[in-house]
Amino acid sequence: MDYLSRAVEYSTASSGLRFANFIVDNILYAIVSNIIQAFLLFVLIPNSNLGDSDPVFIIFWILFSIFFVTMFYAVQEYLFKGRTIGKFVTGTRAVTLDGEEPDFKRYFIRSLCRIIPFEPFSFLFSASGWHDTISKTRVVKVTDFERIRSREDNIDQIGSAAAA
């Protein structure tokens, strides 16, 4: 196990921090999602023949919701290097199992997994949720992760200097 993997293991965010991320991100998602949905309903399609019980309308909203929730999280984590607004609040971020920054594909997989029914309950059975396990990522406490990583970097530098 290399030092970055150890840093991930020793700095994994607690269940309490993860729950706080969930609450903050879901509040923000609800606000943004409702604004966009209101805009779509009242500005873009006010005169359409689609009604609330029309199957086309229902399918559209389901697909829109899946797309929006996936992009909401994936884009935030990609732009903010593993962080969402909730993760900024709690001082955490997502990293790969080996401590590297995930690529967009991995952020997208994390986000897509959030739509799995009962996914939030996966934390009751494991320290990592399904969106962590499937995407091979972990959420770490940034200060702990960076401290362990820099300490290990210093030890590696001492070892390479002594060998030279």
Helix content: 55-70%
The percentage of residues in β strands lies in: 5-15%
First-last Cα distance: 24 Å
Helices, by number, come to 7
Sheet of most strands: 2 strands, antiparallel
Using the CA coordinates, give the radius of gyration: 20 Å
Helix and strand element order: HHHHEHHEH
Uncertain spans? none
Chain-averaged pLDDT = 87
DSSP strand count: 2
What strand order characterises the main sheet?
1-2
Number of domains: 1
Structural class, by secondary structure, is: mainly alpha
Principal-axes geometry comes out as: elongated
What order do the helices and strands come in, and which of them pair?
Layout lengths: L2 H8 L4 H30 L10 H25 L5 H6 L1 E5 L7 H10 L16 H6 L1 E5 H22 L1
Antiparallel strand pairs: 1-2
Helix pairs in contact: 1-7, 3-5
Please sum up the structure shown.
With 164 residues, the chain is mainly alpha-helical. It contains seven helices and two strands; from the N terminus they run H-H-H-H-E-H-H-E-H.
Walk me through this protein's architecture.
It contains seven helices and two strands. The chain is mostly helical. It has one domain. A two-stranded antiparallel sheet has the order 1-2. Helix 1 packs antiparallel against helix 7 and helix 3 packs across helix 5. The longest helix is centred in the first third of the chain and has 30 residues. It is elongated, with a radius of gyration of 20 Å.
